[in-house]
């Protein structure tokens, strides 16, 4: 029963939600970017969440495939049947085609006079940001609860 | 020398089970945005009953069983964790933990009173 391990779990979730919020902020900031470093219009990015710690070391893979191998020294003290938190598996770019607007005077206009803008809907991004914020707050309150439990467990000894 | 009162073993198990419940709840909260994740839970009353039976019959305590929670709505991305339900479970388990700690402290202060009885 590892009380301190729970803080790591909630911490990983807070990290993942914060990264999601950062990706949303990058999308909103680049909503009108027609020219990135590669010369193409900006493509909307989004994150993929996955269970587990994203740890690709040999020790963690061995621990996952052999139930009896859970060595506390190699893996840290984590329960073998609960996923140790969450991590961002990948930041993927949207494959949707860019939005074309007719503007022949624009320096990035193509041969027909169309400029390609990223297809970013501010409402979608704001809703995503609200979801990330609420999930972040939820996990922050979980950390508070865990801290309070450890503190009250100390009370036994007083 | 082991100092036990009638309740201290059961209270210790009560605290362990509450810790386990909070672990499951925080695991669910951490995975609220993971596609395809199913909420985990345990039958608290059943596990407590099993623990009390094991203590009565002097057996070793069984490991609590973790099951997939049913009756939850599954969202389009395959996740069925409810933010409000997990928040309530967290608050409840935390308060139960504090109750357990207070009762355990009471047990030990009774023992201390008995030890210091002749000082009065």
Strand-helix topology:
The complex is a heterodimer of chains A (158) and B (120).
Chain A (H helix, E strand, L loop, with lengths): L2 H27 L15 E7 L6 H8 L6 H4 L10 E8 L5 E4 L11 E4 L4 H33 L4
Chain B lengths: L7 H23 L9 E2 L2 H13 L10 E2 L14 H33 L5
Antiparallel strand pairs in B: 1-2
Helix pairs in contact in B: 1-2, 1-3
Give the strand order, joined by hyphens, for the main sheet of chain A. 1-2
Total domains of chain B, how many? Answer: 1
- Report the strand count of chain B: 2
Average pLDDT, all residues of chain A? 82
Describe the protein.
The complex is a heterodimer of chains A (158) and B (120). Chain A has one domain (3-31, 45-93, 120-157). Chain A is built from four helices and four strands. Chain A has helices spanning 3-29, 58-65, 72-75, 122-154; strands at 45-51, 86-93, 99-102, 114-117. The longest helix of chain A has 33 residues, at 122-154. Mean pLDDT of chain A is 82; it is low at 69-80. Chain B has 120 residues and is mainly alpha-helical. Chain B has one domain. Helices cover 57% and strands 3% of the residues of chain B. Chain B contains three helices and two strands; from the N terminus they run H-E-H-E-H. Chain B has helices spanning 8-30, 44-56, 83-115; strands spanning 40-41, 67-68. In chain B, 32% of the residues are buried. At the A-B interface, helix 1, strand 1 and helix 4 of A face helix 1 and helix 3 of B.
């Amino acid at each position: 029963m590892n009380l301190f391990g729970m803080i790591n779990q909630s911490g990983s979730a807070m990290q993942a939600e914060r990264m999601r919020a950062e990706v949303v902020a990058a999308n909103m900031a680049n909503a009108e970017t027609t020219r990135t470093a590669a010369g193409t219009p900006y493509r909307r990015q989004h994150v993929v969440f996955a269970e587990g710690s994203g740890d690709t070391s040999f020790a963690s893979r061995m621990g996952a495939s052999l139930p009896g191998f859970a060595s506390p020294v190699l893996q840290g003290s984590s329960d073998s049947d609960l996923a140790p938190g969450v991590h961002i598996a990948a930041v993927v770019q949207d494959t949707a085609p860019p939005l074309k607007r007719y503007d022949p005077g624009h320096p990035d206009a193509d041969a027909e006079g169309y400029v390609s803008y990223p297809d970013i809907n501010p409402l979608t991004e704001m809703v995503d940001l609200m979801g990330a914020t609420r999930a972040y707050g939820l996990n922050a309150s979980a950390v508070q609860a865990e801290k309070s439990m450890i503190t009250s467990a100390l009370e036994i000894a007083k | 020398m082991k100092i036990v009162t009638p309740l201290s073993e059961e209270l210790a198990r009560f605290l362990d089970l509450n810790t386990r419940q909070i672990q499951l709840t925080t695991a669910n909260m951490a995975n609220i945005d993971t596609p395809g994740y199913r909420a985990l839970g345990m039958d608290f009353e059943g596990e407590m009953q099993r623990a009390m039976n094991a203590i009565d019959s002097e057996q070793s305590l069984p490991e609590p069983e973790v099951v997939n929670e049913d009756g939850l709505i599954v969202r389009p991305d395959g996740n069925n964790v409810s933010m409000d339900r997990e928040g309530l479970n967290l608050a409840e388990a935390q308060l139960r933990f504090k109750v357990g700690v207070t009762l355990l402290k009471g047990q030990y202060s009774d023992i201390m009173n008995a030890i210091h009885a002749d000082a009065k």
